[in-house]
Amino acid sequence: MDWLRKLPGFERSPPGLEWKLLRLMPSICLAGTLLPLLLALAARWLMTADTPAALERRLQMWDYLLLGLVFSIASLVLTVTIGCVIVWLMKGPAYVADGFEVSHSDQPLP
Q1: Contact 99/55 with Cβ under 8 angstroms?
Q2: How far is 85 from 19, CA to CA, in rounded Å?
Q3: Considering the domain boundaries, does residue 87 fall inside one?
Q4: Domain total for the chain?
Q5: Residue 55 falls within a domain, yes or no?
Q6: What DSSP letter does each residue of 6-19 carry, written as one string?
Q7: What is the pTM of this model?
Q8: What is the residue-level pLDDT of the chain in tens, covering all 110 positions?
Q9: Can you tell me the distance from the alpha carbon of 64 to that of 56, in angstroms, rounded to the nearest whole number?
Q10: Is 44 contained in some domain?
């Protein structure tokens, strides 16, 4: 039994923007992780405050902000990657499912 029979005469669509985006996703993910990490390290050197407690609060707030940025970029990368994979699969070869007889196909039941 041939489960995945390709549809005869189907022409495969040429690759488009989805492949360009898929190739960019690893570098965007890497940059979206490393740049906030570098900003957090730079904040440790450059940020000043009147008291050590105030400095700690500012650094903690900055860290939470950058952590939120990392998670936002990661979710964006994941969403775009899933969308590109869906488009890639939809452009792939078409398959024919095995048909089966329906008892009321000529005269639908009321």
Answers
A1: no
A2: 9
A3: yes
A4: 1
A5: yes
A6: EPTTPPPPPP-HHH
A7: 0.74
A8: 566 777 778 787 888 999 999 999 999 999 999 999 999 999 999 988 889 999 999 999 999 999 999 999 999 999 999 999 999 988 888 777 766 666 666 666 66
A9: 12
A10: yes
